[in-house]
């Protein structure tokens, strides 16, 4: 350790929390801090809280060994300049986040969107180690995606590549938040899954899920763990709905095997991680129907980094961008 | 010219014809030859005919200036080794095409599949000049695709990336030759378009197309030019069918803008080129519905190289692979 600048700091800027961690070259989180974002208090407050969280994970001695800071943030943002263009979840607009942090701490600062950072974290420290062409698919309220092509995060001309949630899977499917029909997000996100479950319940389908949400029968309050429990207990409605969502993700994965020749698909997000391997079966079943010569060796895995995905992903961003620059 | 080795030879190996051309550094075809492939006579005959076609486009003096040979061939093949793995259209199986030509002529030989080569040709010499991230979509009997990412042909881990024709566009759509349902190829290839036209005619829909095929009313005999003529004359069935096919391609393009952040889509193939710009309108209409920040500056164009696409694409392959190696 001594004398070598071999630490990075990874920062996960989220709508609810800001987490930061001091990460060594082996990908171990040596110290970490988490504070509330308090996004409603405005840009300056968010920046102040972010700066002080970074300060807390390092002292004078270790600080000398920090090579760079990586930050994962909601987008859209410009990964080259580190400027947050706009975030629906935070009150940051045209905010030079990267430059501001760099001026404060005097080390290189790299910013990318949370899903890209999540994919990069899996690639460097998690389920994607040893692969070169990796697709990350994160099922949350929406569906986010990230692409690692030939070992590098792919941004495309638009700088906004990786929007797997807005691949059209069923042209006459449900309306998506983006205004199009049948986007993957409109078919297989947590929000879409809950919409389908609620509709089935309205239509009289029984489900053990209702046991976990109390008297008002509000399915929106259901937690991922409860969904996973019902799934693994064989609740027919839950299994049918989740397998259908996974099947749609499988269609996207099949398209991506054909299109990109990717070798690994990493699936993450609360519900997916709570259910685990069983969620992957309908996806793997689709991969079996790929063209000859396209899917040999293709793997589908659950993300491996869990709670530390945000910090480790941002640390991976700092390390890889340092190497590239 | 004198003294400089600044020529390449581009070879277009097809199921019907073999074409070869001597191409200078400005992308001009100085001399070209075309012979029948005579695929039914077997691998040795194909190789002999290919070798002698290459010989014919160069004489002793110009030969000294040939830096490399590029070959576009039906796949699947291995672009690294130049081995044709299998071709349904030719009787080549595990055929070391690249190495055989290299031994014969003593210059580097590079082989890639015809659609990748077509995309690369447009990128280097045609509609894609000046862009960095280009998607080629070629509508023939099937639908082939090629990806240029950051200025390079993308092969992926499978070495078979770019199979845009087998992106799933409509999961409950018509059966594709690959065994899946609703692939782009099953919705928008020439074969699918003719299937839809024939079905409509069976159901009594009138169309001017029948005027061009004689008494047996066999729509399979219809030529691309006749389809384009009916389209531009406002034949309702032909316009409806072609616009629907283009609309499906538009959905794929929208997905690819979101996924890859590509900036240019080049459309080629007989029917598409015969119809021209009008075929692009339904595609451009879909691009207008992309997410904010993803489609600014995205262009959709008709391929520019026409009859010389095969030779120029193979020449572009030779030049770019030489630079990379």
Model description:
The structure is a homodimer of 325-residue chains. Chain A has 325 residues and is an alpha/beta fold. Chain A folds into 2 domains: 7-121 and 308-324, ATPase, nucleotide binding domain (Nucleotidyltransferase, domain 5); 129-303, ATPase, nucleotide binding domain (Nucleotidyltransferase, domain 5, 2-Layer Sandwich), CATH 3.30.420.40. Helices cover 37% and strands 21% of the residues of chain A. Chain A has 11 helices and 13 strands. Chain A has helices spanning 43-56, 60-63, 97-105, 114-125, 184-188, 190-202, 224-232, 236-260, 270-275, 281-287, 309-324, and strands at residues 7-13, 17-23, 29-36, 66-73, 77-78, 83-86, 93-95, 109-113, 134-139, 143-149, 152-153, 264-268, 299-302. In chain A, the strands form 3 sheets. A 5-stranded mixed beta sheet of chain A has the order 3-2-1-4-8. A 5-stranded mixed beta sheet of chain A has the order 11-10-9-12-13. In chain A, strands 5-6-7 form a 3-stranded antiparallel beta sheet. In chain A, a hairpin with a 3-residue loop joins strand 1 and strand 2 (17-23). In chain A, helix 6 packs antiparallel against helix 8 and helix 7 (224-232) crosses helix 8 (236-260). The radius of gyration of chain A is 20 Å and the shape is globular. The two termini of chain A are 23 Å apart. The mean pLDDT of chain A is 95.
């Amino acid at each position: 350790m001594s004398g070598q600048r071999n630490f990075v700091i990874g920062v996960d800027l989220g709508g609810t929390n800001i987490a930061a961690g001091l990460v060594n070259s082996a990908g171990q989180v040596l110290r970490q801090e988490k504070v509330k974002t308090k996004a409603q208090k405005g840009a300056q407050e968010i920046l102040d809280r972010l700066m002080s969280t970074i300060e807390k994970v390092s002292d004078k001695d270790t600080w000398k060994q920090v090579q760079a800071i990586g930050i994962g943030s909601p987008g859209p943002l410009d990964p080259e300049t580190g400027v947050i263009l706009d975030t629906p979840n935070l009150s940051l607009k045209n905010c030079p986040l990267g430059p501001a942090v760099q001026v404060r701490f005097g080390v290189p600062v790299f910013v990318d969107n949370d899903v890209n950072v999540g994919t990069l974290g899996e690639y460097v420290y998690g389920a994607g180690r040893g692969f070169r062409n990796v697709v990350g698919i994160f099922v949350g309220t929406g569906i986010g995606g990230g692409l690692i092509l030939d070992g590098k995060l792919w941004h495309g001309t638009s700088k906004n590549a990786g929007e797997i949630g807005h691949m059209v899977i069923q042209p006459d499917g449900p309306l998506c938040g983006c205004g199009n029909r049948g986007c993957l997000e409109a078919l297989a996100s947590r929000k879409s899954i809950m919409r389908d479950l609620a509709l089935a319940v309205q239509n009289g389908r029984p489900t053990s899920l209702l046991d976990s949400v109390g008297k008002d029968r509000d399915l929106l309050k259901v937690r991922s763990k409860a969904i996973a429990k019902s799934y693994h207990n064989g609740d027919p409605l839950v299994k049918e709905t989740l397998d259908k969502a996974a099947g749609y993700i499988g269609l996207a994965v099949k398209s991506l095997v054909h299109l990109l020749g990717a070798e690994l698909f990493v699936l993450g997000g609360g519900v997916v991680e709570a259910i685990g391997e069983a969620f992957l079966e309908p996806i793997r079943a689709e991969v079996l129907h790929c063209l000859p010569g396209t899917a040999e060796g293709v793997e589908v895995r659950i993300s491996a980094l869990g709670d530390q995905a945000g910090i480790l992903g941002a640390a991976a961003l700092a390390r890889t961008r340092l190497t590239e620059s």
